[in-house]
Amino acid sequence: MYLGSYTFNTLKDIVSQFNIQGEVKEINAYGSGHINDTFHIINAKSELPDYLLQRINSHVFENVAILINNIEIVTHHIKQKLSAWDGVDPNQQVLTLVRTSENKCYYQDNAGNYWRVYIFLKNTLSFDIVTTINQAREGGKAFGRFQALISDLNADLLGETIPDFHNIEKRLQKFKYVLDADPVGRSAYVAEETAFVLKRQEEMCSILNLGRAGKLPLRITHNDTKFNNVLLDADGKAQCVIDLDTVMPGYIAYDFGDAIRSIVNTAAEDEADTSKIDVNISLFKAFAIGFLKETANVLTDLEIKSLTIGTLLLPYMIGLRFLTDYLEGDIYFKTQSSDHNLQRARAQFQLLRKLEDNYEDLQRIVQTTTDEYRLTVPINNHL
Ligand code: ADP
Ligand code: GN1
Ligand code: MG
């Protein structure tokens, strides 16, 4: 078993700080996230739960107390609502944090690392690439339902776990600063990408500007709606939205756009051969159907219009973040090679070009799907 820089015994000691049931049998590194380190803790007693141990990246998340508090508020709110639904087991559909013997939901080790433990949801899978219409629809349903369930939660209750996370103006400022400072001598390699970024910079601020003008409501959003942050059950149905570290105030277009970025791409997020990258319109439609069935009656008309803008903004923003990290010397995202972040940025910008080519079609699909659900689904049908 590969445990990175940790040994089985170190991890077992950390797990023992939490109120877990049973006995640790095996520990395996798990998942393909770019930020945290994740381990699957297998219970010697198979009738008892397995656990998911995570080292929270405190370089990225500077205030772990706020982060954990946000997760507690959101998971509690959703569980309470789901407990009123027939045939739903809230503990299977929402993450459950395990407390430490000191009654906290995280543990800080002697080296200063922060750890948390969730109950592991057995017989679930997450996917980095979407291959079927069913997966896309279930992804839409999962993120749409997540939004509908928290739409009545007061955004003031939650803190910002990463300040200005989706503030594109600040992201652009930082990019320009790093490009100019050129700390690791890579600026010369990004002329084409820089021109691409600068050409679109004004239009990419439209959601931020609409929000500032009070035209888009600030909601609680997930802010990391990559498809691999949904767990599907053994029948391929959406079971649970995970990776709640960035749940904080935001605009709904961010969640729609980030999910679309990861779902409609015919290639991997970091595809080196950009000719393989295209937009799968059938997957877009399926995601929109799943998402809007849950949210058409929750979102305002302008929010609905903003969704397609979000499908352009999010690949732009994450491409810009990858590019900035490349210029900074790969200090934020986990990378597998020295030009991995540049390759990721190029792939996201290519996806954006393809989304731009299809923009009118995407807008039409969002609007017609919304109109259909506004006619057929009663308001607050499952809230
Ligand atoms: P990261 O921030 O690194 O992306 P995630 O919280 O998304 O970390 O977890 C990494 C992977 O672990 C997920 O893609 C998923 O496959 C798996 N995972 C996360 N939470 C659970 C859970 N409660 N039960 C089962 N698997 C999980
Ligand atoms: C990171 O943790 P993970 O892999 O789900 C990142 C997201 C990016 C994503 C790109 C906290 O998400 O913002 O969109 O990588 N998370 C953070 O794959 O920065
Ligand atoms: Mg994740």
Write a structural description.
Strand 4 and strand 5 form a beta hairpin. This protein has twelve helices and nine strands. The strands form three sheets. Strands 1-2-3-5-4 form a five-stranded antiparallel sheet, covered by helices on one side. Strands 6-9 form a two-stranded antiparallel sheet. Strands 7-8 form a two-stranded antiparallel ribbon. The protein folds into two domains: 8-119, Phosphorylase Kinase, domain 1, CATH 3.30.200; 133-376, Aminoglycoside 3'-phosphotransferase, Chain: A, domain 2. Helix 4 runs antiparallel to helix 8. The protein has 383 residues and is α+β, with helices and mostly antiparallel strands. The model has no long low-confidence stretch (mean pLDDT 95). It binds adenosine-5'-diphosphate (ADP), 2-acetamido-2-deoxy-1-O-phosphono-alpha-D-glucopyranose (GN1) and magnesium ion.
Brief summary:
With 383 residues, the protein is α+β, with helices and mostly antiparallel strands. Helices cover 44% and strands 10% of the residues. Helix 4 (133-150) packs parallel to helix 9.
What distinguishing features does this structure have?
Phosphorylase Kinase, domain 1, binds 2-acetamido-2-deoxy-1-O-phosphono-alpha-D-glucopyranose, binds adenosine-5'-diphosphate, single chain, binds magnesium ion, alpha+beta, 383 residues, Aminoglycoside 3'-phosphotransferase, Chain: A, domain 2
